[in-house]
Amino acid sequence: MTFFNSLVGGTKSASKHYETDYWATSYKEAIEWIKKDSGNKKVKVLVAANDYSITCASWYKSDNIDLYSTFKTNQTGDLLSEFDYYIGLKRYGFEQNFPDANIIAKIGINGAVFSVIKKQRLNSKQINF
User: Fold this and answer.
1) Which residue, of 83, 98, 100, 102, is most buried by count of CB atoms within 10 Å of its CB?
2) How do beta strands 102-109 and 65-70 pair?
3) Are 87 and 33 in contact (CB under 8 A)?
4) Stated pTM of the model
5) What does the pLDDT look like over 48-92, one tens digit per residue?
6) What single DSSP character describes residue 101?
7) How far is residue 43's CA from residue 45's CA, in Å, rounded to a whole number?
8) CA pair distance 82, 30, nearest whole angstrom
9) How far apart are CA 122 and CA 2, in angstroms?
10) Three-class SS string for 15-78?
11) What phi and psi values does residue 83 have, to the nearest 5 degrees?
């Protein structure tokens, strides 16, 4: 759903200067990725979202996924122990929350990252990109 022409350097270049996922549409792919990764296991997912944008993730969740939201930035350390995953948009710098957690997936297109999925460093294996 995001495209920028070559005048601004394409989507990758535009993502450094413009909001490329304003409506959090990448949360659909992030939730689908977590569905596949978790199988049928019950998981808790912390989503960087407010009361309105949490809908972008909750619409696609399955019964085994419980969603919680946070709209805080500058959250340090590893992912909180009560959560299995964290999804953070690049918007507002949410992808920088929990810098000690492993980034296990990046959602984007043409070199532009829209959101990241993280897991606790102790409970996950890192995927190389």
Assistant:
1) 98
2) unpaired
3) no
4) 0.83
5) 988 888 888 999 999 999 999 999 999 999 999 999 999 999 888
6) S
7) 6
8) 19
9) 34
10) CCCCCCCCCCCHHHHHHHHHHHHHCCCCEEEEEECCCCCHHHHHCCCCCCEEEEEECCCCCCCC
11) -115, 145
CA distances from residue 116 to 6, 45, 63, 86 in whole angstroms, order as listed: 25, 13, 22, 8
For the segment 96-117, the average pLDDT, to the nearest whole number, is 92
Q: Which DSSP category does 7 fall into?
A: G
95: buried, middle or exposed (CB in 10 Å: 19+, 13-18, 0-12)? Answer: buried
Burial 106-119 (b: 16+ CB within 10 A, else e): bbbbeebbbbbbbb
Tokens standing for 72? 């805080």
- List, edge to edge, every strand of the sheet that includes 112-119: 65-70, 43-48, 85-89, 112-119, 102-109
Question: What are the φ/ψ torsions at residue 39 (nearest 5 degrees)?
Answer: 65, -130
Give dist(CA 79, CA 83) in Å, integer: 7
